[in-house]
Specification:
84% of the residues lie in helices and 3% in strands. With 200 residues, it is mainly alpha-helical. Strands 1-2 form a two-stranded antiparallel ribbon. Helix 2 packs antiparallel against helix 3, helix 2 runs antiparallel to helix 5 and helix 4 packs antiparallel against helix 5. The two termini are 29 Å apart. Keywords: Membrane, Transmembrane, Transmembrane helix.
Length: 200
Amino acid sequence: MISAKRKIFVLLILQFLFSGLLIAQTSEPDLEAINQNRIGLNSNGMLVLGGWAVSNMIVGGIGMARTNGTTKYFHQMNAAWNTVNLAIAGFGYYGLRNQSAEMSLSETLTEFHNFEKILLFNAGLDVGYMALGAFLWERGLRKENNRLTGYGQSLILQGGFLFAFDTVLYFLNRSESSQLMEFVSHVQFTGTSVAVSIPF
């Protein structure tokens, strides 16, 4: 038969373990740190996009002046296309660096959700760019048109890079937001109270 002291000891141990679990489960995530990581991650993404754009504009400008035929038009499209990429990277970086890291949970989730939707939409467009590039390339070969061929090759390259860029940035953001989603999945609001479920 278990003694009274042993019962009390076991109950105290269980209470201690349970309270530790409860504290671990109910502690709110550090939203400011999460937002700082999000802003830093996406700012670095804009720097990568800007670096790609600048290098394409430089190489494209030089290549356009020094080559002819299909290669000339390939460089021409690379340079022209990346003026848009540079503008997107510049505005994106500026907007992120001026964004406050002090946000509520709902605001933080909204920022993640909206940016992830944009990245997925862009990835769909990127596939379209590559498909258009393949069409132009094939048509250029059939028509023996250097411009169409060069432009098509360029669109395949640019679309391929942007698809990889958007996909990687999406999964990096998804990884960052997953801890918030896990926290929210254990929180239930009934209208009069908030409950935190603890999975065992």
